Structure of Alpha-amylase:
Amino acid sequence: MTDALATETPRTDPAIWWRQAAVYQIYPRSFADANGDGLGDIPGIVSRADYLAELGVDAVWLSPFYPSALADGGYDVADYRNVDPRLGTLEDFDRMVAALHERGIKVIVDIVPNHSSDQHVWFQEALEAGRGSAARERYIFREGAGDNGELPPTDWGAAFGGPAWERVADGQWYLHSFATEQPDFNWDHPEVREDFLTTLRFWSDRGVDGFRIDVAHMLTKDLSEPLPSRAELEGMPQDGTHPLSDRDDVHEVYAEWRKVFNEYDPPRTAVAEAWVSSPERRARYASAEGLGQAFNFDLLVADFDATQFRSIITENLEQSASSGSSTTWVLSNHDVTRHATRYGLPALEGSPEKQGVAWVKAGGPADWVDRERGLRRARAATLLLLGLPGSTYLYQGEELGLHEVAQIPADQRQDPSFFRGADFDGLGRDGCRVPIPWTASGPSFGFGTGDAHLPQPAWFAEYAADVEAADPDSTLSLYREALRLRRLLQAGEQLEWTETGRDDVLSFARPNGWRVVTNFGTAPFDLGADADHVALGPVSDGALPGESTVWIAPAALVR
Ligand code: GLC
């Protein structure tokens, strides 16, 4: 039946391609390793350009590929306008952009403006130049507390655990909201502001189509003395006046960035990673005068539950309609336990986040996860998401149905949150960053020619891309078909809920007649006459099986 639906994609206005895009996140050091050194690289991405085209994504977002000491997986950037020599050269980057553009795939790169690496030339200069120097002004240096300045200026904690201040040789302290190796920039400094404009133009000039902005809510800070204590900070309202987070004045920065984006035709796009207190505060990042779009992470902490999905969907569509942006859907990324695993964990403490923590803390015993059920629910949730208005961000490997790798020996882990004791799912974020299995056999399952930089488990063979490409029922085949049909379904940015008579079954219609039905429960749901119009997803005896989603084509499209 689906062959009847193989009509051409309606082309959208080139300036708003991002509004309904399926964006595939590549974590470059774990995607494909062309030179065999164990780290994924840019030529590796080029070698997989056809795979991405066959998958049918509209864009790729690359996590940082810049020179980095890898204290935080590349989010510690030593040079914003270059490629890590282990990953290739700027010429390789240009070749990659050309290869993707030739295949109709846009390129989004990650900008990390809150902090640099301590290896950045400005930070090295600041260390050498000493206290009171102009070079220290670009970062946040303070004298310590205590009789001899031997105590940190405040008791603030860093996001990865431990104190947020580090002392340097001459006795001053610098602020790092994340790892010690990630000093925070001083965004009151005109050179810092100017330098990021240069970086945005640098990549835009090289053909980059958009930017993902790391911790976009943290750049500007009010560090006037006396600095508040941690307890005082926690008691302060998150209304735009908080000293460290989601300050109203951060939008002055993004208004300047917007002018740069609009120098290009089509204008460059941006999406904010902004962990803020309310949908209304998030909408400010998504404004057309600012970054234009902001991540909605609500589904990362939701259960596989019809009521929760419905209210999250309704609320986010309302919010994006009011900001004039389009919403974003995310089930997995490089910071969280993969959703196939989250959905397969026993209900230990109520929320999937807590299940993940408990599971990973226990060393991730394999028998805690019902892999089959987790994947079944993940496929259902993904099909539901791909049918929604807005853009969907997919994380590399989820199209293979990959599960989290929990059993990584401590001496092979890399995530600073693991070593510094933060509670990012207990054992850190390495388990979703294990290199992709491309082939069922061979060294590092076809990722490279030798060992991968994080160990891959034997069960990765089952999920290898070559095995799945040959199997019409595989998760990869499902993603390919969904992404192909999605181009037909994504017309208009509205949806209308239809009543199903069951609390655990959601159904909605798109303006062009496509419908999506998800059965969150376990009892089959009778599809009635719709059973004849199913374009995608399982039907059995005219019913939608438990924990699955179908797409129903408008009658006119079905032969
Ligand atoms: C963002 C990134 C995360 C990184 C952190 C600090 O949350 O997604 O991976 O560790 O910022 O840059």
User: Anything to note?
Assistant: The chain has three domains: 14-114+191-477, 121-175, 498-558. The mean pLDDT is 93. Residues 306-323 form the longest helix (18 residues).
